[in-house]
Amino acid sequence: MRAVVRDRYGPPDVLRLATLDAPEPGPGEAVVRVEAASLNMADVDHLLGRPRLARLATGLVRPANLRVGLDVAGTVERVGADVTGLRPGGRVWADLFDSGHGSLADRVCVPASALAPLPGQVAFDDAATVPHSGSLALQGLRAAGPIKAGERVLINGAGGCVGPFAVQIAKARGAVVTAVDHGGKLDLLREVGADEVIDYTRQDVTRSDRRFDVVLDIADTRSLVALRRCLAPGGRYVLIARRIGSFAEKALLGPVVGRLTGTRMGTFAWHPNRRSDLDELAALLVSGAVRPVVDRRYSLDEAAEAFDRLATGAARGKLLITP
To answer: What pLDDT score does 190 carry?
Structure first.
């Protein structure tokens, strides 16, 4: 089998396409024939070995796991002993964040419990874009409390991997959505349904007189004080954290600022690959409420190019990789 691997932490040029032995499923495992995979910023972080604290789990000097790739959609090929609920030929999808990574390959062996059934109405290419980033968007909005029809939702940093899903999920809940990113991403944000778009290089939304019921902060570039100015009385602010320091700040200081200002501010503990989230996202895909936007498609031997495009911020939608 072919798989994208790396021998050390570093930029995309550490990646190479290798020929490996075909995987054999052990007890409780399944081998999936990969139909499509996609990249997330978490894949870039995993490649670079950041944050450095994460290397306590992934390998201090060199990565313990050479495989890469989180999002996978494919077909069950073989199952090991003691596996129930899966059979060869079944359509499945998953976020492999907690299950060994390795979706950038033509086959991957994972715990069977990590795999969720994929409805036949959902194309593999669409499904592969969703599990990691879609779950982050769903859980972030859920952490803000139920989104009510007509509520004003601001999504800061909406043009990356997570933001387009957050825009569409909020719209599906009936919200009026304002999306913030740089000018090169505004057409993408209009395409996914944002009611208003703001170019942060031209307008500082925290200095305007606009107030929002919910602020979902994906960019993680502004202070609590600045973002507090965006909130209406009783408003809710939620951070999707990528930096440990920022997570600690919002988790510890956010509730204090919230109590002092009559708002709710903080972050949340993310749970990757939760079956109930994948089922909810599948329903949104089937209904058409969420429509993934694919920027470009790459083959396995072009994986380094795809990583580079994502890491430099050039992507306008998800980057798909197919065997």
So the answer is: 97
Phi first, then psi: give them for residue 35, nearest 5 degrees: -95, -35
pLDDT, position 127: 98
User: For 133-267, which CATH superfamily applies?
Assistant: NAD(P)-binding Rossmann-like Domain (3.40.50.720)
Q: What is the Cα–Cα distance from 217 to 52, expressed in whole angstroms?
A: 23
Q: Where are the domains of the chain?
A: 2-129+292-322, 133-267
Q: For the chain, what is the mean pLDDT?
A: 95
Helices and strands, counts by H and E, the chain: 10, 15
pLDDT interval class at 315 (50, 70, 90): very high
- CATH number assigned to the domain covering 2-129+292-322: 3.90.180.10
Q: What is the mean pLDDT of residues 150-169?
A: 97
Distance in angstroms (rounded) separating the CA atoms of residues 302 and 2? 13
With b for 16 or more beta-carbon neighbours within 10 A and e for fewer, the 11-30 pattern comes to ebebbebbeeeebebeeebb
Tell me what pLDDT residue 254 has. Answer: 81
pTM: 0.95
Strand partners of residue 265: 237
The answer to whether 323 touches 106, Cβ cutoff 8 Å, is: yes
**Percent share of the chain, pLDDT over 90:** 84
Sort strands 212-217 and 107-111 into parallel, antiparallel or unpaired. unpaired
Measured CA to CA, the distance from residue 261 to residue 57 in angstroms comes to 39
Give residue for tokens 């009559």: 262
- Go through the chain and tell me how many residues it has: 323
Instruction: Give the separation between CA 155 and CA 173, rounded to whole angstroms.
Output: 14
φ, ψ for residue 117, nearest 5 deg = -70, 140
CB 213 within 8 A of CB 236: yes
